[in-house]
Amino acid sequence: MNHTAMRIAVVGAGPAGLALALLAARLLPQAQVTLFDARPAERDVSADPRTLALALGSVQLLQRLAAWPAAQAVPILEVQVSQAAPSLPADWAESEVRISAAEMGVPLLGAVLAYGPLVTTLQAAWQAEAARDPARLVSRFGAPVQSLRALAAGSGAEVVAADAVASFDLAVVAEGGVFADQARKALAHDYRQTAWVGTVTLEGAPPGTAFERFTRQGPLALLPLPDVVGPSGVAGQVEGAVRAAMVWCVAADDDPVRDLDDTQRRRVIDTLLPPAAGRAVDIGPLKHFALGLNAERTLVDRRIVRIGNAAQTLHPVAGQGLNLGLRDAYALVEALRFGVDIDTALRRVEWARAPDRWLTIASTDFLARSFTWTWPGLGAVRGGALAALQRASPLKRQLAQRMMFGSR
C-alpha cells in the first residue's frame, strides 16, 4: 500500500490508543497520524492506581515499542484457579488448575501494573516520536472529539473536535470507559453484578502468583502487586506479607460486601481464599462499579474502526479487555502495512480478528452469566471440570496459550 497520503486519526490516548499511534508511527513511516484526547498533555496520570493484568503477548508488544515500564510491573509466574467443592470425591475436594510459566517454558505468563505508569510510559514514547517528526505526527491533547462521521464509501471519516473539523482517510476510536457510563452498543447485557476492587495484604502468599477463586457469590481474583510489605508499624501489616489487587464480582441485588466495614470485609475475604493464598491481614478502601457486556457487532464501519473498550466492554472475570484491544491495534496496523488499499486492509482486519474477538466475548459472557445460575450441583460440576482440566495436560497447555496470546 502507498502510505504517503494516508491520514489516520486516533481518538483516545489510553493504553490501546497510544499503542496504536506508536505502532502506526513506526510501521507506517509515511502515514500522517493525529492523536486526539480530551485530557491535557500536562495532566499527570502517573499516580492512577487502577490495576491492569497484561498477558505475555501484550508485554512483548509493549517491549517491542520500548514502552514497557518493567520497574513498575510484577511478573505473573503462576496462575491458580480454584473452587472449594465439598460434594466432590475426596481427592477432588479442593479442585484447582495451576498453570506456571516454568511449565509452559516462558519467563512469565503476564504481568500486573498500574494504569498510571503504563500510560505515562506510552505517552512519553509517543511524544518523543512526534518530536522527531512533527510534520507527520500530531498530538491533539486537550481536544475532546465531539463526533465522528463516516464519509461516502472510500472517502474517509470526518472528526469533529472541540476547536476544529478535519477529514481523515481512517479514524480509529480507542476511547473506553466503564459499562455504566457507555452508550449501549449492538450487543448489550447488564449482568446485574458489581465489581468490588481494592488492595489486600496477604500473609503467606507466594510471590508472583495470581489467584482466581470461584465463590458462591461470584469470582474473586487476586493479582500480585509491587513491593513486599516490611515491618512498617502500620496496623494489619506484617513482615513478609505481599500486596495483591483484588476484584470480587458479586450479585448487585444480593451484595454481601456493600454493608460491611473494612474489618468485616477482610474477615469475609479471608474465609474465601484458597489455602495457597495464605491469610488476609489487611484491606484497603474498596471501590465498586457495575458490570455488563457492551459490544459492537463489527470492528469496522466503513472508514471508522473501533478497538479495545470502544469495540467491546467485557466482564473482568477473564482479564482480557486491554489484551484484546492491544491485539486489535497490532492487527490493524499490520493489515494497513501489507494491504493493497485501506478498504481491503479493513476487510482483512474484520475477518482476521473475528475468531479471537468472538471466542473471547463468548467465553467471558458464559462465565459471567454462569455465576448467576443456581442449578443444583452446578458448583460440583464446575469443580469437577477444574480438577479434570488440571489432569489433562494438552488442554491445560492450550488454555495457557490462549491466556498468553489469544486465539491465533
Characterise the protein shown here:
- By secondary structure, the chain is an alpha+beta fold.
- The chain has a domain at 7-45 and 117-186 and 294-370: FAD/NAD(P)-binding domain, CATH 3.50.50.60.
- The protein contains 9 helices and 21 strands.
- It has helices at residues 15-27, 56-64, 101-104, 115-132, 262-272, 321-338, 342-370, 378-391, 393-405; strands at residues 7-11, 32-37, 51-55, 74-76, 78-84, 94-100, 110-114, 137-141, 145-150, 157-161, 165-168, 170-173, 187-203, 209-214, 219-229, 241-251, 279-283, 287-295, 300-301, 304-306, 312-313.
- Strands 5, 6, 13, 14, 15, 16, 17, 18 and 21 form a 9-stranded mixed β-sheet that branches.
- Strand 14 (209-214) and strand 15 form a beta hairpin.
- The radius of gyration is 22 Å and the shape is globular.
- It starts with 6 loop residues before the first strand and ends with a helix.
- The model is unreliable at 87-93 and 228-237 (pLDDT under 50).
